[in-house]
Design brief:
single chain; mainly alpha; 14 helices; globular
């Protein structure tokens, strides 16, 4: 009973922390801009550039679905590309509207029932996906900083970026080196030890999880995943770049890459659903480095977040409505078990 109360309290504390950080970031942003100037900057935005940005984002998300389907296939899952579209987009939409990245949990534990894959395999793919994205994003940040010498990131942020690269790379390397051995050891130990049925199932689930990591982190597969990840973030950068042009901010694609990396990495900070607050403050601060006014930077941060959130949320919700069996299959499976 106490454990349940403790978990519930921790959940509420995370929610409060997230909303608190959101409010703090929005307050800092509000104090630095004039609302009338921001509205005037909005009026000068050329919305035609938004169409080009949306196309670029769509290409990036097509690559995301392809990457996920390839990872699942490498682990032995018999899935088609078309089967992965709705679960992937749906999980992104759920991440956008619910706290604590609930969409990731649903993609790992709920959607597998309708896709004919195991929860362990889905979870393995999610872990590899997140680690590769982390490494790729920090790499994009380093590229941007190398090209745009005028952008000066505080030393402690550069240290944090390098720490994230080393952490992500280390975990990927550990997956390559040890996940196969861990899987085999767990299977052998569960067969030899006198375990209860529940513990045996748990051991087998973890063995399958590590086996999935092993299959997905093989050199050939990992190379393909890394290449696709660069294409994915290039597509996302396109949205940031075209919206910059829509505001008449004439910068290079490298600057847009840097802005995208900073804004996206800010979503690692706890916040309210949709990453409101940290994303805006990070995008605003990054665009401000290009020499534009406070109002233009604030307007840009609002528009790029709204475009990113709205496009992915609508696409995901439409995908979920088109595939209601994504939830019903999991419910039938739980009843049978």
């Amino acid at each position: 009973m106490r454990n349940k109360v403790g978990v519930a309290f921790q959940g509420k504390l995370k929610h409060l922390l997230g909303f608190g950080i959101t409010l703090l970031c929005l307050f800092v942003l509000y104090k630095q801009v004039n609302i009338a100037d921001v509205i005037q900057a909005f009026e000068g935005f050329n919305s035609l550039y938004l169409i080009a940005g949306a196309v670029s984002l769509a290409v990036g998300y097509a690559m995301r679905v392809l990457r996920w389907s390839l990872m699942l296939k490498s682990a032995g899952a018999g899935v088609r590309y078309s089967q992965c579209i709705a679960p992937f987009l749906g999980s992104i939409a759920l991440n956008n509207v619910f706290p604590l990245r609930l969409g990731d949990v649903v993609r790992a534990l709920v959607f597998p029932a309708s896709m004919g894959i195991t929860k362990a395999t889905a979870t393995s793919s999610l872990v590899i996906e997140r680690l590769v994205d982390l490494v790729t994003l920090v790499f994009c940040l380093m590229i941007g900083l190398g090209v745009i010498q005028s952008f000066q990131i505080p030393p402690h942020y550069q240290t944090l970026a390098m720490t994230l690269v080393l952490l992500g790379s280390g975990l990927l390397l550990a997956g390559i080196l040890f996940s196969g051995s861990l899987s085999q050891w767990l299977l052998h130990w569960s067969a030899q030890a006198n375990l209860s049925e529940t513990k045996t199932k748990l051991c087998k689930a973890f063995a399958e999880f590590f086996s999935g990591l092993n299959q997905m982190s093989r050199p050939g597969m990992l190379t393909a995943v890394l290449v696709l990840s660069m294409l994915i973030w290039a597509g996302e950068t396109g949205l940031f770049y075209f919206i910059l042009l829509g505001f008449g901010i004439d910068v290079s694609p490298a600057a847009a890459l840097l802005i995208m990396a900073l804004a996206t990495l800010s979503t690692l900070v706890p916040s309210s659903p949709g990453y409101v607050g940290p994303f805006h403050l990070a995008a605003y601060t990054a665009v401000l480095m290009t020499g534009v006014s406070n109002a233009e930077a604030a307007s840009y941060a609002i528009v790029v977040h709204l475009a990113l959130w709205l496009l992915t949320t609508v696409a995901g919700l439409v995908a979920l409505l088109a595939r209601p069996e994504l939830f019903t299959a999991a419910k039938r499976q739980s009843v049978q078990n």
